[in-house]
Amino acid sequence: MTLFEIRKMSARLPTPAPRTGRSESPCAACNVRHLTLCAALDDQEVADMSAIVSSVELGPGEPLFDEAEPAKNVFNVTAGAVKIYKLLPDGRRQMTGFLFPGDFLGLANEETYAYSAEAVTFTTLCRFPRKRLEALLEQYPRMERRLLGMASHELAVAQEQMLLLGRKTAREKVASFLLLLSRRAVQRGQKDSPISVPMSRNDIGDYLGLTTETVSRTFTLLKQAGAIVLQGSGKVELSDRAALEVMSDGV
Amino acid sequence: MTLFEIRKMSARLPTPAPRTGRSESPCAACNVRHLTLCAALDDQEVADMSAIVSSVELGPGEPLFDEAEPAKNVFNVTAGAVKIYKLLPDGRRQMTGFLFPGDFLGLANEETYAYSAEAVTFTTLCRFPRKRLEALLEQYPRMERRLLGMASHELAVAQEQMLLLGRKTAREKVASFLLLLSRRAVQRGQKDSPISVPMSRNDIGDYLGLTTETVSRTFTLLKQAGAIVLQGSGKVELSDRAALEVMSDGV
DNA sequence: CTTACCCATTGATATAGGTCAAAGAGCCTT
DNA sequence: AAGGCTCTTTGACCTATATCAATGGGTAAG
Predict the structure, then answer these.
(1) Among A62, B222, B229, B242, which one is most buried in terms of CB atoms within 10 A?
(2) CATH number where A109 lies
(3) For chain B, which residues lie within 8 Å of any Cβ of chain A, measuring from their own Cβ?
């Protein structure tokens, strides 16, 4: 058995601690509460959610679903990291997001997914059959309101990303990206530095509208400017956050 | 009185025809049905919507609201065109969308608007006080579902735009933009060509992540390639749609 | 009718970031 | 421990698009 396979197996083992919230009932299938969505729900609602959920584990690089495939499930990341992206016919790729524990994906208005999704690291997710989730939403308008709030928030995030893609320089893009990862880590209860950067330079480039080489050069530049320290194995220390903040907006 | 003022006055006069749908009840204040949102509503629901709505008219370039201002209202465009955008501290601008009759704007999860909004042409909108609209949503979950659908759709559109901004060439961007305008015109019951392009080259550039000059050069290029004909006064004929389709994706 | 302004277009030049190429640096596997 | 991946870094060069500058054209004001 290869190390890859062992790691993949072991991804099943650790059980993330239940989050605090209005209710402590964990999901029956994956033994975690459904984070974002459940934060506002009561025991009965969480129980109903748990009844329709199942668990999914993925190794690095494994696909979850492809763009244009029928959108049969909605997912909630519980551990690891997921990348979502769109492709052009000739293979050019645009990451539209990196998702971490608590994030939802697969919500679609149309009958098919609008993007492809793939694991970045060893990842676990909860899977909700879309039809059954929708039935539940009919029953609990409060959940639906929560989903609307999440969608509105993601829309604001998407617009911020458009500003980055359309109008920021490479340095501004990379500085913004590192600050974003740091803020998200804090949201998940981790430290704001050093941060974990589990995705490749190529993935980062496809997220920021840059090439691998430009991302690499820009990291070197930020390192030389004393704004960051590369600690190896995907850890980056934000040693001068103020400088990064200034750089992320264009001085 | 200047011509500008006369035009602005006259923007109040024309009353758009009621749309077909489940109910024909027009809004009491603006005498149109609330398009996207109302398409699935019954008479009682439309009446309740009409009770909280008021009408707004704007001339070209007039602001509707600014980013970071308290999000007190939600709007529905009933005539004209609106641009929404975000700014960097040094003035660089990214349009995040052009909105046409039927489009909603101002929905926000946070307490403030995520972007600024400004009229492109003489424009009329319906204004819904956010608090009162939210109260209505509690009462009518079906409306909320409709809003969730709209938000999900906009999210998919935003992701498509990220692909454009991050990975397409100038030619692909402009071709995609013209096809987008054409498709949206059809949705509003207009012809797919010639299309009305009411915004300036500069606005288009800020939407596509390009400069005025590059947009202008690219229009010339498409014209020379026989893909479009510039008819003056903001009308563009898509004379070779197939060529545009091919160009919009990178051959 | 004339002037003034704004916007679009075109040209010349500069540059940020892309492309191509090669050399490390970690790893997993054997 | 050695070989072979894959990913990152660095260098040299190139090109798409930005920038700077000038001209033209349409429309509104006087």
Answers:
(1) B222
(2) 2.60.120.10
(3) 86, 88-90, 92-94, 96, 107-110, 114-115, 137-138, 141, 144-145, 147-156, 158-163, 165-168, 206, 208-209, 249-251
